[in-house]
Amino acid sequence: MPITAKELEYIADSMSNEDLLIKQCTAAAASCTNPQIQQVLLHQSQVHMQHYQALLNCLQQHQAIAPTQPQS
Fold first, then answer.
1. pLDDT score, position 43
2. pTM of the model
3. Is 23 in contact with 7 (CB distance < 8 Å)?
4. Alpha helix (H) ranges present in the chain?
5. Nearest Cα to Cα of residue 27 among 16, 18, 17, 38
6. By its UniProt entry, which InterPro entries does this protein fall under (predicted)?
7. In whole angstroms, what is the distance from residue 44 CA to residue 32 CA?
8. Number of structural domains the chain divides into
9. Which of 20, 32, 50, 66 could share a disulfide with 38, CB 3.0–4.6 Å?
10. Does residue 69 lie within any of the structural domains?
């Protein structure tokens, strides 16, 4: 069953949020002087990368059954 437009918007928003979190964690880790905190931030960045990839995989799996024309 194809995903709905609402679900597609939700996934796109979630991917955008995950991308922002990746960038924020990476930037914070780069400017952090405490190695333990830096390690936690880098780990969180990786976790958000995994979330982003999972969302992308979901879209790719549904691409084959997605409608090619707008639904009326």
1. 98
2. 0.81
3. no
4. 5-31, 35-63
5. 38
6. Ferritin-like_SF
7. 14
8. 1
9. 32
10. no
